[in-house]
Description:
This protein is an alpha/beta fold. It has one domain: Carbamate kinase (3-Layer(aba) Sandwich). It is built from eight helices and twelve strands.
Amino acid sequence: MADTGGGDNLTILKLGGSVITDKDTPETVDDDALAAAVAAIAESPAIDDESDEANLIIVHGGGSFGHVHASDHGVSTTEGTHDPAAVTAIHGAMKRLNSVVVDRLQAAGVAAVPVHPLSAVARDGEAAVSLPTAAVGSLRAEGFVPVLHGDVIAHAGQGVTVISGDELVTGLADRLGAARVGLCSTVPGVLDGEGDVIESITDFESVAAALGDSESTDVSGGMAGKVEELLALARPARIFGPDAVGAFLAGDAPGTLIDGGSRD
Ligand SMILES: Nc1ncnc2c1ncn2[C@@H]1O[C@H](COP(=O)(O)OP(=O)(O)OP(=O)(O)O)[C@@H](O)[C@H]1O
Ligand SMILES: C=C(C)CCOP(=O)(O)O
């Protein structure tokens, strides 16, 4: 069954860093996993449609690139740094991963272009994110598929902190009115205490006991952070596994539905 959340035809897809990188080896791409995701994207209706406007925005996470450097420098979504070398180490790693993702997408015929959050996104003193969308919106209108990534961003009073790909997904979905929002992670969905995929989540408390951190180095909250972020989104979203990217982009409803119901 397909699910839609209003807005136009825009789909926002996050490729989890744990999916597209080898979590055990710093700065290593998981070539097979990335190739499978890229093939699913390249063959999807979101790419192969008749509109001049791109109907897809891709965001990817940090995996063994950003998280390893962020952890080394003690930086997270809440702990900041004023060390410029930490900024370039974390941001540089994310740019290297982003350029691999963009290159592979382009090689598969997707009009992917890089968008780096450090240059435009910021948190204020209350950690509220300002996320200008003019560049992403105009790139889309011109037929490009913007590819953003978790990054470090300016944070008033803290230097820089990490912004996760999940926060970028929800920020863009809110501001651009995405019809469909999907997070591809290493698991087939959010799992309950028995290891079964939970069909739908509408509040945090009822699943909190089953939610843990990532198994890999992670500075942005693992599955618990992901679910909290998506529950606050004013539209439904899905978490699913690497095998379901094609199905999600084709309009199916794989994995776990997260719907906090907070509509405007
Ligand atoms: N209840 C749960 N259901 C599913 N996964 C869970 C659960 N609790 C903890 N996890 C862990 O959370 C991980 C997903 O979070 P993670 O932050 O690694 O996601 P990601 O978005 O794929 O990666 P990245 O943060 O690098 O982008 C899963 O691989 C799993 O190890
Ligand atoms: C660690 C960095 C810089 C990016 C974090 O993004 P995420 O993997 O989506 O949580």
